[in-house]
Specification:
Elements: E1 15-19, H1 26-36, E2 40-42, E3 46-47, E4 62-63, H2 66-74, E5 78-84, E6 87-92, H3 93-101, E7 105-109, H4 112-121, E8 126-131, H5 135-144, H6 150-164, E9 172-175, H7 179-194, H8 201-215
Parallel strand pairs: 1-7, 1-8, 2-7, 3-4, 8-9
Antiparallel strand pairs: 3-6, 5-6
Helix pairs in contact: 5-6
Length: 216
């Protein structure tokens, strides 16, 4: 989709939480939306894992020691957090809130468990789930990659069903059947939320003043 022109950021940004099973195309949709919609930024997570070659602190991740992460956790500094294979990850609330207050919108790509944590702390977060046209189609896609064993694919499909079972907790669902259509629907959801009157007080006031001036 072509990039927007003449776009004004909302008075306060929107926190978008994007979830969906592995292989459903979330990253593709998010990357295109960030290129096309001004004012969107991807949240940089904190992690206890070591940096990989080429990764930069504050850009790829906020790299924290275990002690630093645990201190932040005790301080209630995370919107959401999880531990995977002894490595912890989390979204720093202060970083997100600073962006939102400046009118920038933040995109989180996290699983259902993380989305629930965010929603419990930020009730105004907008939850979007990206889903395949059907579960069988996703399993076929994963198996066609021929990069994982049958056991790994079966384990992933169990996780897929667990994630998709929570779709009723989300505000929007985007079916990624045709990618071009999915791009349009996904960006339509984001733009509609960004255009809500409650987030456009500055624009509304400008229009009201212009009308009052015209009446005189």
């Amino acid at each position: 989709m072509p990039a927007l022109r003449g776009w004004e950021s909302p008075d306060r940004g929107v926190l978008f939480v994007i979830s969906g099973p592995s292989g459903v195309g979330k990253s593709t949709l998010v990357k295109a939306a960030m290129a096309d919609i001004p004012g969107l930024e991807f949240s940089v997570s904190a992690t206890t894992r070591d940096p990989r070659a080429g990764e930069k602190n504050g850009i790829d991740y906020h790299f924290l020691s275990r002690a630093e992460f645990d201190a932040a956790l005790a301080d209630n500094a995370f919107l959401e957090h999880a531990t995977v294979y002894d490595r912890s990850y989390g979204t720093l609330a202060a970083q997100v809130d600073h962006a939102l207050s400046a009118g920038r919108s933040v995109v989180l790509d996290i699983d259902v468990q993380g989305a629930r944590q965010v929603k419990s702390r930020r009730a105004d977060a907008v939850l979007v789930m990206v889903v395949p046209p059907d579960i069988d189609a996703l399993e076929t896609r994963l198996r066609s990659r021929a990069t994982d064993s049958d056991e790994v694919v079966s384990r992933r499909m169990a996780q897929v069903r667990s994630q998709l079972d929570a779709v009723g907790e989300y505000d929007y669902v985007v079916v990624n059947d045709d990618l071009d259509s999915a791009h349009r629907v996904f960006q339509g959801v984001l733009l509609a939320e960004l255009s809500r009157l409650g987030r456009r007080g500055t624009v509304a006031e400008r229009i009201r003043r212009a009308c009052q001036s015209f009446d005189r």
